[in-house]
Specification:
This protein has 482 residues and is mostly helical. Helices cover 81% and strands 0% of the residues.
């Protein structure tokens, strides 16, 4: 199993590593200078509510992405290139190749959701459909994604990780082609819902696959980097979609998704091993799967970990739902400045993910989870206090940055602790956790949208409550393993 990843980065010539980090450092410094200058200039004019043209929007995403990608690349490669060994019985080298392949697989759904957002008006015009119908294609995808997570995990526990993941990506590819050729909004709606169902296979099985390959601390370390890729992908996706829409038309976006799916298929076939031995695969029984779900929901430790991760994610979902309205409409920040303020969240996330990757093997997953929850709880309380004291824009931006920064730390370590208790049904556990996380986030986000009254209190209250509930579920139910 580990032989496919034995390409040791320690054999990389020293000069090549120095060159890589020198180039990354120079790119980072150049972009940060540009970024900070633009942010200061834009915030000085934050009372002017301008509407960005498509070109300005693309340039905004481009600048942010060019700043953050070298930082992520540098931090990730530094951690990957450090001398390390996995703690499994069959050691697996955490190489740059493994990170890239797993990151490419994990990026399928973020790209599928965010890359076509700039093209929604064009889709409505081309297909002669109302805007509401085009927006519903996004709901169709997320609904298929949520439902799919319940099925793919148990199936992979019985038939293996690789065939189920490969089958999901193949179906994802077919749906991308159908979407690109769609001449009717109903066809596009059906294709997108099926594509969401297929995309859930990669999202669920990748966690079970990594759990098969690594023990708990190494799992948390690997998943933190994968979570980072999944968070950075939505930042780049609108930029890519905007360029494709400018150069071609909206159908090109789905052709690119199909091409990405083909690349992922090749990676799975050539480089991803089957990590679940046949003698560890129970036969697939629907009743047994339902009983496994019920068994987990009756276990306090599992419930605590699932809801701890779910409410943590829901707080971030609250910001994604209402953040742009709070920053732009309430605080008067321009749309371009909002892009840079949003990028600060990603910078914080990158830093905390890097720290988690460096510390988790030494301190343990439980310690890192408590560390992340403590920071998140402080951020959740601080954002409410800052709003009550009327500290203005930065009284909201800084706590949000801190809250979002530990999402990867909490998510990866809570899953590491959960799956370590259910190694024989890691797919089932991953399915339930993913569905509950997405379901809680969607419900909280919808609640924020309903109660919004033009002030930040709807979003801020949701973030504070989610931080408290996330910490409470851990301390009351999951602090001690069964």
């Amino acid at each position: 199993m580990g032989c496919l990843f034995q390409e040791s980065v320690s054999q990389t010539p020293l000069y090549s590593r120095r060159t890589l980090f020198f180039v990354a450092r120079e790119t980072i410094c150049t972009q940060i200078i540009r970024w900070v200058s633009l942010l200061i200039a834009l915030c000085n004019n934050n009372k002017k509510k301008d509407i960005l043209s498509r070109t300005e929007t693309i340039n905004c995403y481009n600048s942010i992405y060019l700043t953050l990608f070298p930082i992520a690349l540098s931090f990730t490669l530094r951690s990957v290139m450090s001398q390390s060994s996995a703690v499994t019985a069959s050691p697996t080298q955490l190489s740059w190749l493994l990170i890239i392949i797993l990151g490419a697989i994990a990026a399928l759904t973020p790209l599928a959701i965010d890359m076509y957002l700039p093209a929604m008006p064009a889709i409505a015009g081309d297909l002669g459909a109302p805007n509401s119908a085009v927006k519903s294609t996004l709901v169709a995808y997320t609904a298929g994604f949520a439902i799919g997570q319940l099925f793919h995990g148990p199936i992979s526990d019985s038939y293996g990780r690789k065939p189920v993941m490969l089958g999901g990506v193949i179906l994802f590819f077919i749906c991308a082609v159908v979407s690109a050729l769609a001449e009717d909004i109903n066809v596009l709606m059906l294709a997108r819902s099926t594509q969401g169902f297929a995309g859930a296979a990669a999202a669920v099985i990748i966690q079970a696959l990594v759990r098969d390959m690594f023990e708990r601390e190494e799992f948390a370390r690997t998943m933190s980097f994968i979570t980072l890729v999944m968070t950075i992908a939505p930042l780049a996706a609108p930029m890519i979609g905007g360029y494709l829409l400018t150069w071609f038309d909206w159908r090109a976006i789905f052709w690119v998704l199909a091409g990405w799916a083909c690349f992922v298929m090749v990676c799975i076939v050539v480089k991803i091993p089957e990590t679940l031995p046949k003698n560890h695969r129970p036969p697939l029984r629907i009743g047994a799967s339902l009983r496994n779900y019920a068994r987990m929901l009756k276990t306090p430790f599992a419930v605590g970990m699932i809801f701890c991760s779910g409410f943590s994610f829901a707080g971030m979902f609250s910001f994604l739902t209402a953040g742009s309205f709070v920053y732009i409409d309430y605080y008067g920040v321009s749309a371009k400045a909002f892009g840079y303020l949003f990028g600060l969240n990603i910078v914080c996330l990158i830093i905390m993910t890097f720290l988690n990757g460096r510390l988790v093997r030494k301190m343990g997953s439980h310690w890192m989870l408590r560390f992340g929850l403590a920071i998140q709880l402080v951020a959740g309380i601080a954002i409410a206090v800052c709003q009550w004291l009327d500290l203005g824009l930065w009284g909201t931006v800084i706590p949000v940055m801190t809250y979002v920064g530990v999402i990867s730390t909490i998510g990866s370590n809570s899953m590491a602790c959960l799956l370590s208790c259910y190694p024989q049904m890691a797919g089932t556990a991953s399915s339930l956790a993913g569905t509950m996380r997405f379901g809680i986030g969607s419900l909280v986000g919808a609640g924020v949208a309903v109660v919004s009254d033009g002030t930040p209190w709807g979003m801020i209250g949701a973030i504070a409550i989610c931080a408290i509930l996330s910490a409470a579920f851990y301390w009351l139910l999951a602090r001690k393993e069964p």
